[in-house]
Amino acid sequence: MWTPRPSTGMPARTASPLRLALFWLGIQAVWGALLGISLQSRTIELAAGDALLAYGRLATAGAIVAAFAQVAIGIWSDARSRSGSRRLEFYAAGAFGGAIALIFFYDARTFAALAAAYVALQASLNVAIGPYQAIIPDFVERSRTGAASSWMAALQGAGNAVGALAASFIANARILSAALSALLLACWAVTSAHARTLAMQPGSQEHATPRITRAFVDLFISRALVYVGFYTLLGYLLFYVTGVLGAATLAGARLETGILIVTFTIVSAAGAALAARPSDRLDKRWVATIGAAAFIGALALFIASHALPGAVAATVLAGLGWGIFLVADWAIACRVLPAGSMAAAMGVWNLAIVLPQIAAPALTTAVLARLTLTASALGPRVAFGLALGETLIGIAWLWRLSRCAIGE
What we know:
- The chain contains 14 helices and no strands.
- The chain is mostly helical and 408 residues long.
- The protein folds into two domains: 14-203, Up-down Bundle (Growth Hormone, Chain: A), CATH 1.20.1250.20; 211-408, Up-down Bundle (Growth Hormone, Chain: A), CATH 1.20.1250.
- The longest helix has 32 residues, at 51-82.
- The protein is globular and about 55 Å long.
- The two termini are 35 Å apart.
């Protein structure tokens, strides 16, 4: 049982959702740069002979490390929290470790060095990410968790856009790594400084075990499958721009890919805004299905396109659908996840995002290797075809949930 800290005589401060969420901006800027552009482009530079195969293996290895680190560190941070910790030591270790790993990642001169730096980056940042997911229940009263969550979502999109833009327009690798590291550390400093002034929420340090229901399992599987489709699109987009759209240079491909990712991010915010009211008034399964259908249509358009205008149209449609899906997905989760142990459940729930980062490149690499397409311009089209099927199965699985299960 949690015992409140003795009063210091200082008046209790109200948590600022913006300051608490700012660290998420820095973390997502790093992922926006790496997962959409830099990991692929650095792999092409250092493993030019079979970049698709090398990328798939490296992305899979990094995601496995992320999954293990998040769960293990999350459990450790919960134990530390019950002993009085605010988890800030994990934020610091992740931020500084990540900043150092970023420098080695962009400075790597061999593929082996790149792989080591990327694995170290995944491990470091996930030391922070696991404990950081509990920051809202730790410091924000239950009546304000919705507003705090909206800031997290908004800064996630903003961070992805900032990272993609930085990786697209900053050609000098050392300047890029320095900029991303500085942003990461600055955001960490603001969030940590603010969290130190806040009182922990009553009950935030009590031990609770989430109850796994059939609805939870079905929603987890559905979400994971849809995210496998998303990470397949994100992971192979630069290869698509290079091999299918025929970008003349790697620098040009990075720029075009960055523009597509930023466009996707901006449009997804618009899609989320459009879906906010319908997700409150309509059957949330239908709202999620409409969003997924748009995303599936976009993947089909990507496969059929041969030039940049078609890819831009597909990106707009994909962003719109993804924003709609995310709103409905989150709304359903708030109904299905156990309210009495929401923080612990969210830690398990996040594996539906982490595990697809393993499955997407691993499955795609296996299929492309089987078809001997890892060095072919047809490879990215096949990858997007897999993403289409994965998303379709995921959204179909969602309908295993009854109206009663989601509180309709």
